[in-house]
Design brief:
Elements lengths: L2 H6 L22 E4 L8 E6 L4 E7 L5 E4 L7 E3 L6 E4 L33 H4 L3 E4 L11 E9 L3 E8 L6 E6 L6 E5 L5 E3 L10 E10 L3 E10 L5 E5 L28 E4 L4 E4 L4 E5 L5 E10 L5 E10 L3
Antiparallel strand pairs: 1-20, 2-3, 2-13, 4-5, 4-11, 6-7, 7-8, 8-9, 9-10, 11-12, 13-14, 15-18, 16-17, 18-19, 19-20
Length: about 325
């Protein structure tokens, strides 16, 4: 993984303040909301469309791994907001892996497909993984770990982990959450469970930095919106926001991808050093409870001109 390439590709590190850009006027009857990720995009914000409110937020740097919590679940996600990566080694003994030389790192796929994660089907390999912890909020590398998943049951995971070049091995039991889609974990020190994701029926969207992988080998840090994989579906529509009605919904066009809204509802204007929102792009979200909302973005800056504050309007679509 080429860190130099990654750093060069991240325009989110520049342009904290905007020049004057016309902001789209809200549509009559639509609600307006704004969330603040912070100028360095430190926050991950879980949002419920039905109450038009933040359900929970956390600092994106504090967790490393997310373990699928369903009874039959076994998938493990990396903290893609830090561009984390994993590499499968040939070792079965965690003590035997002390270097990642010659290993190939990969990243979780940005579409959210659980069959396309970097760690993948660890059950069939029985091998140890090298884990690149990615980049922190300061821009510095957070180092590397090694991980072996020993087992999974209906209620818990058993794992071993350590610094990549260490023989001090930590063993940890990760309980499966009974309410959230994933249990979150930090490999700092001897390990810590992290209370990150709210109950899966209480939120629809999460505003966050995340990793978009181009050409299967180029990871790129983007800032946008991902949807709750447990029940939320999204479609982008061509009808203007103000004109779209419930009768215009085409059920077959909803997608399960968690990045349908994604990041590219805004573009970076290199000439002016600002982000420009495409307010003509409209999304329809089928919420976790089966209600329909149309949504579009109208700004990306707070009242002080600091980036990382997506402002949007939404309106429920009622028959």
């Amino acid at each position: 993984m080429k860190k130099g390439l990654l750093i060069a590709l991240i325009p989110v590190l520049s342009a904290c303040f905007k020049k004057e850009i016309p902001v789209e006027k809200p549509v009559s009857g639509a609600a307006t909301a704004q969330v603040e990720l912070g100028g360095n995009y430190a926050n991950q914000i879980y949002y419920d469309l039905e109450t038009n409110s933040v359900v929970r937020q956390n600092n994106r740097e504090v967790w490393d791994l997310a373990f699928e919590a369903g009874e039959s679940g076994f998938h493990i996600l990396l903290n893609e907001s830090r561009i984390m990566a994993a590499a499968l080694s040939s070792e079965t003994d965690i003590n035997a892996l002390t270097s990642d030389a010659g290993l190939t790192y990969t990243w979780d796929l940005h579409t959210g497909n659980l069959d396309s994660t970097a760690i993948g089907n660890w059950q069939s390999s029985g091998k140890v993984y090298a884990i690149d912890l990615g980049t922190g909020l300061s821009g510095a590398s957070l180092g590397k770990k090694k991980l072996k998943v020993l087992s999974v049951s209906n209620t818990e995971y058993q794992i071993q982990f350590a610094d990549l070049n260490s023989t001090t091995i930590h063993t940890f039991t990760i309980p499966k959450s009974s309410t959230a889609g994933f249990t979150y974990f930090s490999m700092t020190g001897s390990g810590t469970l992290m209370d990150i994701e709210p109950a899966k029926e209480t939120w629809d969207l999460v505003f966050t930095a995340y990793c978009h992988v181009f050409d299967e080998h180029t990871p790129y840090s983007v800032v946008g919106v991902l949807s709750n994989r447990y029940g939320v579906k999204v479609q982008e529509i061509s009808i203007p926001f103000a004109d779209f009605k419930h009768s215009d919904i085409i059920e077959a066009e909803f997608e399960d991808r968690i990045n349908v809204i994604g990041y590219d509802w805004k573009t970076y204007d290199f000439d002016n050093g600002t982000y420009v929102v495409s307010s003509n792009r409209t999304f329809v979200v089928k919420t976790v409870n089966g209600r329909y909302y149309k949504l579009r973005f109208i700004d990306y800056y707070d009242q002080n001109g600091v980036k990382g504050a997506p402002k949007f309007e939404l309106q429920e679509l009622i028959p």
